[in-house]
Amino acid sequence: MSLEFLITTLIVVVSPGTGALYTISAGLRRGGRASIWAALGCTVGIVPHMLAAITGLAAILHSSALAFEIIKYLGVAYLLYVAWATLRDTSVLSVEADVADRSVRQVIVEAVLINILNPKLSIFFFAFLPQFVPASAPNGLAQMLALSGVFMAVTFLVFAVYGLFAAAIRGQIVRRPAIMVWIRRSFAGAFVLLSARLALTDH
Predict the structure, then answer these.
(1) pLDDT tops 70 at residue 10
(2) Which helix (H) or strand (E) holds 25?
(3) pLDDT at res. 97
């Protein structure tokens, strides 16, 4: 594993995207525990794309305009749903000591779906991993699996830091309802913008 891979991975993961945004939102809305579950869910949501890239399914997705468009617009619809749900969720106005089991399941499912319904992740892995695995490598599959594992570990750690930081300042923010309303609207708007960017993406 090269230092170049680690640096590139860190840059990619640190850059704000739907997963990071959702994890931060979970930390603000439901606290530290929820943000960890969100980070885990977003990381698990990477697995199908990683496997698709490694097995070559990403190439099929990339070559099939119809398949790409179907998955893309499912992702757009889900991001718009998340934006709508964020606007409607007023639970952030009360600080809960813990998160109920149902809420944990909801956070994980939402986080997993956010990444699963992003077809660009498959294309990203398909283009990203081969750069760090020589074509002549006798154990190329094992190397790609190892690199993918590192990518997922970095994703979880970075997202968890984002979420825990959001949770740490949550107590100060939730005592100011006007700020919480503004934050909810900002996150909802950000999810709408991300959905628009995904909708305009060409395969």
Answers:
(1) yes
(2) helix 18-30
(3) 45
